[in-house]
Design a protein that fits this description.
heterodimer; A: alpha+beta; Rieske Iron-sulfur Protein; five-stranded antiparallel β-sheet; 6 helices; B: mainly alpha; Cytochrome Bc1 Complex, Chain D, domain 2; 2 domains; two-stranded antiparallel sheet; flat; QcrA_N (chain A); Rieske_2Fe-2S (chain A); transmembrane (chain A); Cytochrome bc1 complex Rieske iron-sulfur subunit (chain A)
């Protein structure tokens, strides 16, 4: 056990035995190794230095790289003095000069060291011996004996009360993480099935906060992002309730769109993609495609936003809209199906909505 | 003569003949084409009424796709163009001044390009006047209406984020659409062209008419677009400013490849000079 596990065993045939890193036993050189007389390198058994020519070449390359690192470091100091900051443009120049010189200095230094190791230092094979993993039998016996002695002296075997109350103290500690799991709840209940839209709520333009008058939104090919009145800044509500409002030419609307949910060829769809809930609002007025930028789900806005490409499984839900007495667009009701991506308890909400419609 | 007869049946002969015929056709066209340009120049410099001059320019450069009276034409696989009745002078000014029209090749997207030689502010005004006379529509905004220095970039940014960034990116770098179409970058567009695009909805772009997005709000958005366009990238290259996807791509492809190459270089086994 006194054996140093990191000790590197030299192959037997290497004579003289010598630990790597210690000065050579022969010669009068300093610890740094003064050049031996006669330009004849000392030859160690099994150690092969690269030939003179390539070593000299490597030395020149490494020296050049060190010189570059030196100059780049000087350049760093110079850049710090020369390029003063103050404006964004000046900071940009300063950042570039400081970062560039520092990167060059460190890179050149590292490259020089790699060249040194690869071209000048010798190459040889080392055999590293591993001792067996298991301890010796007497040591293991000793440890077992010590353990038993300790247990005996602590009194945990004899003092029953101590032992049992200790176990009692430990048991609920193990349960604590399970208690924290409760914070994953409460269950959403029916909140995923509803948005804040309800009968009579006005449609407000996102960004301007103005209500939309149907007569103003009169250019076919137009699109607006709209939000419910009173919830313009309620991000939790908007995460489900944001709409896209599209104005069509009457002849462009296809049968998939529920016409009695539109007003004067203005159709409102949920902006929340039914795949994973990204805002799908890349609308092409020529093809009536609504593209979701996350996974390229494509919906045909003219045909009830049915899916024509991509991973979305359902059309974007359509919101029933109409106008109030002043001509502003309002909701007729909430969506009849849950908006956004699927969830575990969703079931076939479309079929249920159809059944409700017939009932 | 004999050699021609001998090579007449060479497999490449038919291509040679085709090439010859095409060159001839091109040459003849090049000889005849300048006539048209002279006529345009006369119209451009003339005192003729804008609408009449515009009608002639329209007949020469636009009618092949949009029909002789701008009523639109549809030919399967051939030159087709939508009706221009009611699109307004703003649409003409946008399309022609940005080089999108006349279209070079029919395809999913009409790209911005260098305008043709006949295009100048006068000829654009004339064609625009002609199209405006057909059925009205949005007109070209005054310079004051699009002056970025008179807009509020902060308000414009809010509107831009609500209405534009889904396609044009948060700093107007553009992005892809469906089936080969794309939303172009906004950097090359002049303030007037940005206004006209919002008002007319060119190509796949939706319309943002003046009654839902007011002219003042449009000017705010122009102020925002112009101000972000001029912002420097203090962190170095903006990589097209299209967001974390490119940055991640560069980091993974370029950065990690370099690290792997360095690791290979450092750890590569050097061949022993001489063996035992």
């Amino acid at each position: 056990m006194t054996e140093n596990p990191n000790d590197i065993d030299q192959p037997e045939e290497r004579v003289p035995r010598r630990v790597i890193g210690t000065p050579p036993p022969r010669g009068n050189g300093s610890a740094l190794g003064a050049p031996p007389k006669g330009h004849e390198p000392i030859v160690y058994e099994g150690v092969k230095f690269p030939d003179e020519a390539s070593a000299r070449k490597g030395e020149r390359v490494a020296a050049l790289l060190f010189l570059v690192a030196f100059l780049a470091s000087i350049g760093f100091i110079a850049s710090y003095v020369i390029f003063q900051v103050g404006t964004i443009e000046k900071t940009q120049v300063s950042n570039f000069a400081l970062g560039g010189t520092l990167a060059l200095a460190l890179l050149a230094l590292a490259a020089g060291i790699v060249v040194w190791v690869r071209q000048i230092m010798p190459k040889y094979s080392l055999v590293q011996q591993r001792h067996p993993m298991a301890s010796q039998a007497e040591v293991r016996e000793e440890v077992a004996k010590t353990f038993l002695q300790g247990a005996e002296e602590s009194g945990i075997v004899r003092h029953k009360l101590l032992r049992r109350t200790l176990l009692l103290a430990a048991a609920p500690l193990g349960l604590l993480p399970l208690v924290l799991l409760k914070d994953l709840g409460p269950l959403p209940g029916t909140t995923l099935r509803h948005t804040v839209w309800k009968k009579g709520l006005r449609l407000m333009i996102e960004g301007t906060g103005q209500p939309v008058r149907a007569a103003d939104f009169n250019s076919p090919g137009g699109i607006l992002s709209v939000v419910p009145q009173g919830f313009e800044n309620d991000l939790n509500a908007l995460a489900k309730a944001t709409l896209i409002l599209i104005k069509f030419r009457p002849e462009d609307i296809k049968p998939g769109t529920k016409l009695n949910w539109t007003h004067d060829s203005i159709v409102a769809y949920s902006k929340i993609c039914t795949h994973v809930g990204c805002p799908a609002a890349l609308y092409e007025q020529t093809t009536h495609h609504i593209l979701c930028p996350c996974h390229q789900s494509t919906f045909d806005a003219a045909d009830g936003a049915k899916v024509i490409f991509g991973p979305a499984a359902r059309p974007l839900p359509q919101l029933p809209i109409t106008v109030d007495g002043e001509g502003y667009l309002i909701a007729q009701s909430d969506f009849n199906v849950p908006v956004g991506p699927s969830f575990w308890e969703r079931g076939d909400a479309e079929a249920e909505a159809r059944a409700r419609g017939h009932a | 003569m004999n050699s021609i007869t001998a090579r007449r049946r060479h497999p490449l002969a038919r291509y040679a003949v085709l090439l010859l015929a095409l060159s001839l056709l091109g040459g003849v066209y090049a000889l005849l084409a300048p006539g048209g340009d002279r006529a345009d120049a006369a119209i451009a410099s003339g005192k003729a009424d804008d609408v009449a001059a515009g009608k002639e320019l329209f007949a020469a450069h636009c009618a092949s796709c949009h029909g002789p009276n701008a009523e639109g034409a549809f030919a399967p696989g051939g030159a087709s163009g939508p009706s221009l009745i009611g699109v307004g002078a703003a649409a003409v000014d946008f399309q022609v001044s940005s080089g999108r029209m006349p279209l070079a090749n029919p395809g999913p997207q009409a790209p911005r390009k260098r305008p043709q030689e006949w295009v100048n502010p006068d000829t654009i005004r004339q064609v625009a006047a002609y199209v405006q006379s057909l059925g009205g529509g949005p007109t070209k905004p005054s310079l004051e209406a699009v002056d970025p220095s008179k807009g509020d970039p902060a308000k414009g940014g809010e509107l831009f984020r609500a209405n534009c960034i889904q396609c044009h990116n948060f700093v107007g770098s553009g992005g892809g659409l469906t089936y080969g179409k794309y939303a172009p970058p906004l950097n090359p567009a002049t303030p007037t062209q940005i206004y006209e695009a919002m008002a007319t909805g060119p190509q796949a772009m939706p319309v943002f008419n003046d009654s839902t997005i007011t002219p003042d709000q449009k000017r705010d958005m122009i102020a925002y677009i112009v101000s972000v366009r001029n912002q420097p990238d203090p962190g170095g290259s903006g990589l097209g400013r299209i967001g974390p996807v490119t940055e991640g791509l560069v980091a993974w492809v370029a950065g990690i490849s370099l690290l792997i190459l360095a690791a290979i270089w450092i750890t590569a086994k050097k061949r022993q000079v001489n063996h035992d």
